[in-house]
Amino acid sequence: MAYYLVRAWPRQERLGELHTRLVSGEIRQMQPFGRALEHSLQHARRDRDGSAVWEEEDYCSPPLAQERAAVLDAYFDDLQVQPIAAGAGWAAIAQLPSLWQSAGESDPA
């Protein structure tokens, strides 16, 4: 399994819809990646430049291919991935505010 630090620019007008899908458990049900994607998006952070950042585990080549097709490309632009060690991404972004706090939503976790 590979781990990535993901950076993408949220489509602000669609974040409420994504939040609803996370809270409802819809994304968790997606196979084979739902649980990991739900966890990552629930804990996503907002960087100073307005981008969303999170750590993601993935098996796909190219990275996040299934996740992008099913969810991510509808809610984010310019998705970038950087290979990292497991846990290194979360540690690097721990001090940043929650994506959901910044979007005016309650934390879906």
Question: Overall 3D geometry?
Answer: globular
Biggest sheet statistics:
4 strands, antiparallel
SSE-based structural type: alpha+beta
Tell me the radius of gyration. Answer: 13 Å
Give the low-confidence spans.
none
Distance from N terminus to C terminus (CA atoms, Å) equals: 24 Å
How do the helices and strands follow one another from N- to C-terminus? EHHEEHEHH
Please state roughly what percent of the residues sit in beta strands, choosing from under 5%, 5-15%, 15-25%, 25-35%, 35-45% or over 45%: 15-25%
Order of strands across the main sheet: 2-3-1-4
Count of extended strands: 4
Number of helices: 5
| Overall helicity | 25-40%
Average of per-residue pLDDT values: 93
Characterise this structure.
The protein is of the alpha+beta class and 109 residues long. The chain has five helices and four strands, in the order E-H-H-E-E-H-E-H-H. The chain has helices at residues 15-24, 34-42, 65-75, 88-93, 99-102, and strands spanning 2-10, 45-46, 52-58, 76-84. A four-stranded antiparallel β-sheet has the order 2-3-1-4. The mean pLDDT is 93.
